[in-house]
Design a protein that fits this description.
Blueprint: E1 5-11, H1 17-23, H2 28-33, E2 36-40, E3 53-59, E4 62-64, H3 65-77, E5 78-84, H4 86-90, H5 102-110, E6 128-133, E7 143-145, H6 152-163
Parallel strand pairs: 1-2, 1-3, 3-5, 5-7
Antiparallel strand pairs: 4-6
The structure holds iron/sulfur cluster.
Iron/sulfur cluster (SF4) binds near residues 60, 85, 93 and 149.
Length: about 180
């Protein structure tokens, strides 16, 4: 295992539960950080995705134009791209809005049942794509880690194999909720 491996985690359209599961590695995070260099993540304060990254874990579906631009950029700069959790892998919760169309979703979120200051701040929002999609519908993905969220043990197993240059078997355990 090499300490020169650079790693990123990315948050697209997800609830952050997959990142919470990553944090559930607890003391194993210290061991992980001895083996990888975390160069981009919502968990740290780096603003720009580096030009070249060895391993990136992506939480969430691709749901907005910003998500799409971001994942294309990240794919172009990443050696091994991993979909982390069911929103990234299948669309999952993020894709539940797909049958209703973007107008209905925005109306529901910003107009209906809003008693204080209803209305859509369109100019401040990323544009919703017509469908929220799994990451692999937009860019090539090298591995999926299923689960909602994947357990910390499964993430630990997958990372251990990946940083050793092996493809992990992630079929042993999946869970929902
Ligand atoms: Fe949240 Fe589950 Fe989606 Fe992860 S897979 S972002 S835990 S809803």
């Amino acid at each position: 295992m090499s300490a020169s491996i650079t790693m990123a985690t990315v948050w697209l359209d997800g609830c952050s539960g997959c990142h919470m599961s990553f944090l559930d590695l607890d003391e194993r995070l210290l061991e992980l950080m001895e083996r990888v260099e975390l160069v981009y993540s919502p968990l740290v304060d780096f603003k720009d995705f580096p030009e070249a990254v060895d391993l990136a874990l992506v939480e969430g579906a691709v749901a907005t134009n910003d998500d799409l631009d971001k994942i294309r950029m990240i794919r172009s700069r990443t050696k091994t791209l991993v979909s982390l959790g069911d929103c990234a892998v299948t669309g999952n919760i993020s894709a539940l809005r797909n049958p209703f169309g973007t107008d209905a979703v925005l109306q529901r979120a910003y107009d209906e049942h809003v008693v204080g200051n209803p209305g859509r701040p369109d100019r401040e929002l990323p544009v919703l794509l017509e469908r929220a999609t799994p990451v692999h519908e937009k860019v090539v993905v090298d591995l999926v880690i299923p689960g909602c969220p994947p357990s910390a043990d499964l993430i630990w197993h997958a990372l251990g194999e990946l940083v050793e240059g092996r493809i992990p078997d992630v079929t042993a355990e999946t869970r929902f909720g």
